[in-house]
Write a structure and sequence with these properties.
Blueprint lengths: L1 E5 L4 H13 L6 E7 L5 H24 L3 E7 L4 H12 L3 E5 L5 H7 L2 H8 L4 E4 L4
Parallel strand pairs: 1-2, 1-4, 2-3, 4-5
Helix pairs in contact: 3-5
């Protein structure tokens, strides 16, 4: 089985990761961690790649401690939702487990929501961990 977990620096992302491992993870599952860099230029990309190393170290420590088979995928084209869907399809995952920022109706209408985008653009089961779990 393969599960995709989008990762960023947010508390919601961390909570979704922890919730998945506390409640659903089964030994033998491969976890695909996806991170969208969202760089606007080469300098921005370089800065984000440097910060990404800390993020990777944080999650890799947890995964290695649990002896989990995992892979990292990063991207900077398009938007986060598009990258998540693309990787989920390429990797043929059976589930996507992700956090939600918990935007209000007005902010969601203006800014959009990555979790809503993913939920509506895939047939793969999506677990959305709401803020406050």
């Amino acid at each position: 089985m393969k599960v995709l977990i989008p990762i960023d620096w947010s508390e919601n992302s961390q909570k979704a990761f922890d919730w998945y491992f506390s409640h659903l993870y089964q030994p033998g599952t491969t976890v695909i961690l996806v991170h969208w860099l969202g760089a606007t230029n080469d300098r921005d990309l370089h800065e984000k790649e440097v910060k990404l190393m800390d993020l990777q170290e944080t999650y890799e420590t947890k995964l290695l401690h649990r002896k989990v088979d995992y892979r990292w995928v990063t991207g900077c084209e398009g938007n986060p939702g598009e990258l998540i869907i693309k990787v989920a399809n390429e990797e043929q995952v059976q589930m996507i487990a992700m956090g939600s920022r918990g935007l209000g109706k007005l902010k969601k209408a203006i800014l959009g929501s990555v979790s809503d985008y993913v939920l509506n653009k895939t047939n793969i089961p999506v677990l959305i961990c709401k803020r406050g779990i």
